[in-house]
Amino acid sequence: MRNINKHYTKLKSISKNTGLVGPLFPRKYSFSPYSACQHACKYCDGRAEKYYVEGDFEKDIVIRENISELLEEELNKTRELGIISIGSGVSDPYQPIEAEEKLMQQSAEVLAKYNLPVNIMTKSVLAMRDIDIWEKINLKNGVTLMVSLTFINDNLRGIFEPGASSVEERLEMLKKFKERGIYVGVLAMPFIPYISDTKKNLMSLLKKLEEVGVDFIIPGALTLRPGKQKDIFMDIIKNNFPQLLGKFKNLYRENRQSGVPIYSYRQQVEERIDKIFMQSSIPLHLPHYLYRNQFPLYDEIYILLNHMQDLYSKRGIDIASLEDSLKRYSQWLIKEKKSFNRKRNLNYTDLEQKLLFLIYSGELIKLIKNKKMSKFIEEVVLERRTFDYIKLKLK
Ligand code: SF4
Known about the structure:
With 395 residues, the chain is α/β, with parallel strands linked by helices. It has 2 domains: 5-289, pyruvate-formate lyase- activating enzyme, CATH 3.80.30.30; 296-394, no CATH class. It has 16 helices and 12 strands. A 7-stranded mixed beta sheet has the order 2-3-6-7-8-9-10. Strands 1-5-4 form a 3-stranded mixed beta sheet, with no helix packed on it. The mean pLDDT is 96. The site of iron/sulfur cluster has 11 residues, from loops.
């Protein structure tokens, strides 16, 4: 292990989302046992000033030593069903320090006692150490392993993700989790312009992921926030790919706070990714079959309608009416959630009952002003049918 400075601290609470569930990474609760990251990815968004990670991002590792006690305390009090997501954009839960601190192992043991589904996000094969316990939790509540992977060439991986596991190791881990019946997905982000966003790399990556049989891929382009994140990344390009430096400067010349590159590139790369990845039968979202029993019905519908909006739009299908229904549904849900959050004696099934009432009373059609969509929601909620993200129809 490279020299690091350990900083022990106590986390005050795990994070809870009481608002609308983000459709890209659907989750209700989340935590990270560490802050900062030894994987030292040169593009890491966690380096950005916005996240206030102090010290040397690759060496000053914050260890949240009370994480398992905190879980024990807080999971007792959760009111809503929903995925608990482990990991974040500013630290990997299975970075090398975990081998000695074992906070993930302890957390998994606590999670095994409760009834929440779990998502783990990592670039490290150290997660294999705990596969037996994740398998046990999966049988009870559902577990999804999300591995970040964009490179196929391990030399390139070594330049940009020096502390993370190799490409082969990550593919092998995905296979092993899949063999244990655990859903696996790949966070194919960020694709590095001119290096890993090429047609050749995208096709080779897709081929490998098809061989593994991943359940989904969530792709994304590189963002570079002005400041430390951008400066460190540009130094890597200057030292390793000097011929590309001018091109990178041009793509990120607008220095937007969000870090997005210029619009023409965004459009181009999105089209390329969609064109290649949509040739396969791997969904480009967390598929409905995976999250359908992991959230309350009202959140499941919200996530599903959001995903459908994107899926239809990518196929060139008019989404105006769907957009309008989603907007109306969201307004209803925001209002109901506000009231639910105020009344601490209610359980999520009380809010589910309100959705059921809308369906049974015929009020849903009036609310979303769309007969077809109302029928669709009815079939998902009452008949528990699942939407196929590839065929775009209910099963
Ligand atoms: S593994 Fe994730 S959190 Fe860690 S350095 Fe890489 S991108 Fe950042």
